[in-house]
Structure to design on (316 residues):
C-alpha cells in the first residue's frame, strides 16, 4: 500500500504581470497589440499543473498535452493501483516495462552516481514508514527505521529492456523526485514535434519551449519559505525545478521534512530552505534539486561537473 499523499508546496510562480489574471480555459494576458495568452490549470501527479501558450488552437493543443499527462501517470503514479510503478513495487519485478520508466530510471542511475548515492529512489520504504507513523500520531521507532533502511539501495535494482526487478524483498521505488520533471519534458517534446514553440509546461517543475508568446523570456519567481524573491528568473528554452527539505513535512510541527537521506535513514538536517536548478531537461533539474537538499555547497558544485548544462539557480 503506498504512503499517504502529502500536500506538496509550490516554489515556482509565473509573474502575474506576464500572463494577467489566471483563469482555467480562458484567454488571458491581453496587452496592447499582444496576442491573447491561454492558460489551462489542472492537476498532474497530485500537484497543481498548468500549460500556457498563445495559439488559435490552444484548447486542442492542451487536450493532447493532458492526454499525455494522463498516460504518463499510468507509468509513474504511486497512487494509481494500475500504474507500472505501483505494479513493480507490489510484485518486486515488472516484465516488459514501459520505455519511459526505463528512461527515467536510467537518469536516476546517473544522478545517483554523481551525487554519491544521495539521490536514491529506493527510499520509498522509509518514506512510507515516516508518512504512516506520523499519520498515526508518532514518529517511527528506531527499530522500524533500521528495518526499512535495510530495504533500500540503488545497487539492488536490476533493469534491462525486458525486465525491472528488485534483488531484495520488500524494496520499492518512489519517483516523486524526478517524475514531475520527466512528464514536463515529455509534454514539451510532444508539442515541439508539432512545430510549436513559446509554451510553458508546468507539472510542478517547469519546462519552457521558446519564450513568452509576446516577447522576452518567461519570468519565474521563486518562493522561499513563503517569501517571493523580488527578482524573477528568465526562463527560455530551459527547465527549472525547485525542492525544499522542509517544503513538505511529515509532522505537525513542520520539522521532519519529506526528503530522506538514504545514508542515514533520516530527513535532511541541512539549513537550506530552497534549492533551484536549471537544465535543458526538467527531469534532470528535478532530480538534482531533490538530491542537493541533502548536500553541502561544495558537494553540489562537484556533482554539477557531471552535468555541464545544469546550473544551480538558487541555494539558501
Amino acid at each position: 500500500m503506498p504512503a499517504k499523499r502529502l500536500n506538496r508546496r509550490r516554489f515556482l510562480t509565473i509573474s502575474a504581470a506576464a500572463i494577467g489574471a489566471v483563469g482555467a480555459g480562458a484567454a488571458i494576458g491581453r496587452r496592447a497589440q499582444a496576442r491573447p495568452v491561454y492558460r489551462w490549470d489542472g492537476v498532474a501527479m497530485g500537484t497543481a499543473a498548468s500549460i500556457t501558450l498563445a495559439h488559435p488552437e490552444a484548447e486542442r493543443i492542451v487536450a493532447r498535452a493532458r492526454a499525455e499527462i494522463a498516460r504518463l501517470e499510468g507509468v509513474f503514479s504511486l497512487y494509481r493501483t494500475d500504474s507500472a510503478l505501483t505494479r513493480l513495487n507490489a510484485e518486486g519485478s515488472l516484465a516488459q516495462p514501459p520505455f519511459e520508466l526505463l528512461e527515467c530510471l536510467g537518469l536516476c542511475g546517473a544522478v545517483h552516481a554523481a551525487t554519491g548515492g544521495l539521490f536514491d529512489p529506493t527510499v520509498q520504504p522509509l518514506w512510507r514508514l515516516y508518512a504512516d507513523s506520523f499519520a498515526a500520531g508518532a514518529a517511527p521507532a528506531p527499530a522500524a527505521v533500521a528495518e526499512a533502511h535495510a530495504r533500500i539501495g540503488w545497487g539492488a535494482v536490476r533493469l534491462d529492456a525486458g525486465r525491472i526487478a528488485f534483488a531484495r524483498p520488500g524494496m520499492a521505488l518512489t519517483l516523486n523526485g524526478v517524475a514531475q520533471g520527466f512528464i514536463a519534458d515529455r509534454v514539451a517534446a510532444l508539442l515541439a514535434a508539432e512545430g510549436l514553440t513559446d509554451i510553458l509546461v508546468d507539472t510542478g517543475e517547469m519546462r519552457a519551449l521558446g519564450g513568452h508568446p509576446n516577447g522576452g523570456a518567461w519570468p519565474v519567481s521563486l518562493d522561499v519559505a513563503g517569501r517571493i524573491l523580488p527578482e524573477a528568473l528568465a526562463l527560455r528554452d530551459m527547465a527549472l525545478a525547485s525542492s525544499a527539505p522542509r517544503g513538505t513535512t511529515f509532522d505537525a510541527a513542520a520539522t521532519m521534512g519529506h526528503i530522506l537521506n538514504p545514508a542515514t535513514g533520516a530527513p535532511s538536517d541541512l539549513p537550506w530552505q530552497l534549492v533551484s536548478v536549471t537544465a535543458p531537461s526538467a527531469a534532470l533539474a528535478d532530480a538534482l534539486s531533490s538530491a542537493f537538499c541533502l548536500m553541502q555547497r561544495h558537494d553540489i558544485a562537484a556533482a554539477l561537473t557531471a552535468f555541464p548544462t545544469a546550473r544551480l539557480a538558487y541555494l539558501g
Q: What stands out?
A: The first helix runs from residue 16 to 19.
